[in-house]
Specification:
The complex is a heterodimer of chains A (108) and B (551).
Chain A (H helix, E strand, L loop, with lengths): L3 H4 L8 E7 L5 E4 L5 E2 L11 H13 L4 E11 L5 E3 L2 H8 L13
Antiparallel strand pairs in A: 1-2, 1-4, 2-3, 4-5
Chain B lengths: L5 H23 L4 H9 L3 E3 L4 E6 L4 E3 H14 L3 E4 L4 E7 L4 H9 L17 E2 L13 H12 L14 E4 L13 E7 L5 E7 L11 E8 L3 H15 L10 H8 L1 H14 L9 H9 L14 H6 L3 H10 E3 L5 E6 L10 E3 H14 L3 E4 L5 E7 L3 H10 L14 E2 L14 H10 L3 H7 L4 E4 L13 E8 L2 E8 L11 E2 L4 E2 L3 H15 L7 H8 L2 H8 L3
Parallel strand pairs in B: 6-7, 7-8, 16-17, 17-18
Antiparallel strand pairs in B: 1-2, 2-5, 3-14, 4-5, 4-13, 8-9, 9-10, 11-12, 12-15, 14-15, 18-19, 19-20, 19-21
Helix pairs in contact in B: 1-2, 1-4, 3-4, 3-12, 6-8, 7-8, 14-16, 16-18
Chain lengths: 108, 551
């Protein structure tokens, strides 16, 4: 039987990566070229075709023990090869919330 | 406070053990995410942008100081030192680790707190008026009935896999502080001509992408019949509610498509033919639950104690007292709202240190009890008026005495794109900017009561449809833009707001809100005409003109 992933048509509009959340703590992780996961976006495997994206996503989805909910996300790659998130959602996932975390320091 | 018995304690303990085993099997790979997802959701565990999110129920918004300290402990030990109070009397922890969740659950279970049914397609946390039991003029304490419903719906096998989530809210006051008309079932406690306690039953309210206000399907259901009538509603929903389309699965869609009259007929027919014996509440059943709520032994205290007279010269204290202190059913006492909306900060967040300090103040000044309201503020429900000046100084020190309750900066906001995997746009930074724009207390007081609600997506956790000013974040061509509605309200005169025009960019939202407020100040008949009343009188048009004339 064809898996749902294989049935799904995958389109990408530019350089892309596969990202997910790490199972034990939920941290944001990126699929690497070495068939593992990294919390460092610069270590992410970048794909540029739909077929390559499908393969990377299939491989990531097969590793259900270590990461949850993999999906393809856009990135921007500059001339030096530096990878940056391709949209606001991914920027927030990488850099954290855009607001201060702790409301008030409590007086002693 | 409600006292748990051995059955409750055993249930929670067994639930923790069960979830501990499920987590262990998930981490070992024995359970796949597909298999585990339903199990974690049934324990209030979501996966958000940065981490797992853990949602803990605060049934009918009542907490003991011991329970609040334990929530602080969870924030400090397993999370990043703070929690977020939601619009449904829950608290969320945003950075919890799956591997540590069973320990957090076990710590909470020791004080009778849990996360069962804070997610999933089941009956959710039963919510109520945060002033329950202390509000003047209340028919009776709605928490008795909330607790009966909580016990009945918790792990009910027939209602654990409903077409979609299902939410109850109960109020017993004329002024609805529980937003019952935007719930799947809203219950208004009242008495019939014989003086018997019963409920007006409203069904099919809800927000999200298809907002509806609940419709009354029966004006009086006797208290003895509450469970059988509710079961009849749930059976009709379970039978006819759509399971083929998540967007049409809520009971509001069923009520809308059938029509309230036809839906009511279906419920009546189900109710008529069902065997009610086991579900009929006897006076003894009700009394048994009632007897497990403890109430303070109030003193005979003066309405205007010397301490209050002496503090009246302090303008900051007076501003806070007028704004955040409400009448209590017992003379000499007051209900104090603690604003979790300090200027420039996320609405509804509290640090572990604040929670600990509030728990200490509750012990000293409020018989050890704290309330949580759907507006994302806290309350101390039993404060002697003589203690108000001392309490205010202590609250001010920990940053929860901003005198903005029910004013323009008392903003309800969902976590938005900063945390939520469903969100399309940010909510919290919009709220922060608005609190800065309206930070001046004199200006906010001049504007008067005005509720702003912000949601970061169409799922409407920030209840934007029922904000006097509602702000909905959406994504368009990769940019955050915001639709603005006005005229919504969530009280006994609930209304859905109306869109004023095209969406505006992130950077213009605060300017637009300022324009709307300025238009109101220019157009109102006088200071007594509230914003919401002016919108009702004038309609959307004058506000639309003001906002879009130069855009």
């Amino acid at each position: 039987m064809t898996s749902p992933l294989e049935q799904k048509k995958i389109k990408i509009a530019g350089p892309s990566i596969v990202t997910a959340n790490r199972t034990w703590d939920g941290a944001v992780v990126y699929r690497t070229a070495g068939h593992g996961w990294s919390t460092d976006l610069t270590e992410a495997a970048v794909v540029r075709t739909a077929d390559a994206a499908r393969d990377l996503l299939s491989e990531a989805a097969a590793d259900d023990v270590n990461a949850v909910g993999p999906y393809i996300a856009p990135v921007a790659v500059d001339q030096t090869g530096t990878i940056a998130p391709g949209n606001l959602r991914e920027r927030i996932r990488l850099d954290g919330v855009t607001i201060p975390l702790l409301p008030v320091a409590v007086a002693a | 406070m409600y006292a748990y018995d051995d059955i409750d304690r055993t249930l929670l303990s067994e639930r923790v053990s069960e979830f501990r085993d499920q987590v262990k099997r998930r981490l070992s790979g024995e359970l796949t995410e597909d298999e585990f997802k339903m199990l974690r959701l049934q324990n209030g565990v979501y996966l958000q942008l940065h981490a797992y999110m853990f949602r803990v129920a605060i049934p009918y918004g009542t907490l003991s100081s011991k329970q609040l300290r334990r929530l602080a402990h969870v924030a400090r030990t397993y999370d990043r030192g703070y929690g977020h109070f939601t619009t449904r009397q829950n608290i969320q922890f945003n950075w919890i680790k799956l591997a540590e969740l069973p320990d957090a659950l076990a710590d909470l279970a020791e004080v009778g707190i849990h996360s069962m049914q804070t997610s999933g397609n089941n009956t959710r946390n039963v919510t109520s008026d945060q002033w329950a039991g202390v509000a003047p003029g209340e028919v009776e304490d709605p928490r008795i009935w909330s607790e009966i419903l909580r016990q009945y719906t918790t792990l009910h096998p027939e209602f654990s896999f409903l077409p979609r989530k299902f939410k109850f809210a109960i109020t017993a006051s004329k002024h609805d502080r529980a937003a019952i008309k935007i719930h799947d079932v809203g219950l208004r406690l009242h008495r019939n001509d014989k003086g018997e306690t019963g409920f007006e039953v409203m069904v099919g309210g809800g927000l999200g992408r298809t907002p509806f206000l609940a419709k009354t399907i029966r004006h009086f259901v006797h208290g003895h019949d509450l469970l059988s009538y509710v079961e009849a509603i749930l059976r009709v929903y379970n039978r006819y509610g759509r399971r083929d389309n998540i967007y049409k699965a809520r009971i509001k869609i069923l009520v809308h498509e059938l029509g309230a009259d036809k839906f009511a007929q279906e419920v009546e027919e189900e109710w008529r033919q069902m065997d009610k014996r086991v579900l009929t509440l006897t006076d003894a059943d009700i009394e048994n639950v009632r007897s497990r709520f403890s109430y303070p032994v109030y003193e005979n205290l003066p309405h205007m104690p010397d301490e209050l007279k002496a503090a009246a010269h302090d303008t900051r204290f007076e501003a806070w007292r007028k704004n955040s202190v409400a009448p209590h059913k017992v003379p000499g006492y007051a209900i104090v709202t603690l604003s979790l909306k300090p200027v420039g900060m996320p609405p509804g967040d509290a640090t572990a240190e604040q929670m600990d300090a509030i728990a200490d103040l509750a012990d000293r000044y409020s018989f050890g009890e704290i309330r949580v309201g759907h507006e994302q503020n806290l309350a101390l429900p039993h404060v002697a008026k003589r203690d108000l000046p001392a309490l205010w100084r202590a609250l001010d020190k920990i940053g929860v005495a901003t005198p903005n309750v029910n004013l323009v900066s008392d903003i309800i906001a969902c976590p938005g794109l900063d945390y939520c995997s469903l969100a399309n746009a940010r909510s919290i930074p919009i709220a922060q900017e608005l609190t800065r724009r309206f930070a001046n207390h004199e200006t906010a007081s001049l504007i008067g009561r005005l509720h702003i609600n912000i949601s970061g997506c169409i799922n409407a956790c920030g209840h934007h449809h029922v904000g006097h000013i509602g702000i909905l974040g959406v994504e368009k061509n990769g940019q955050e833009v915001y639709q603005i509605t006005i005229g919504g309200r969530a009280d006994e005169n609930a209304e859905l707001g109306n869109l004023i025009g095209p969406a505006v960019p992130y950077g213009e939202v605060a300017d637009v809100v300022e324009d709307i407020v300025e238009a109101y100040l220019a157009l109102r008949e006088g200071p007594d005409e509230l914003f919401i009343d002016a919108v009702k009188r004038l309609g959307v048009e004058p506000f639309r003109e003001r906002v879009y004339a130069t855009r």
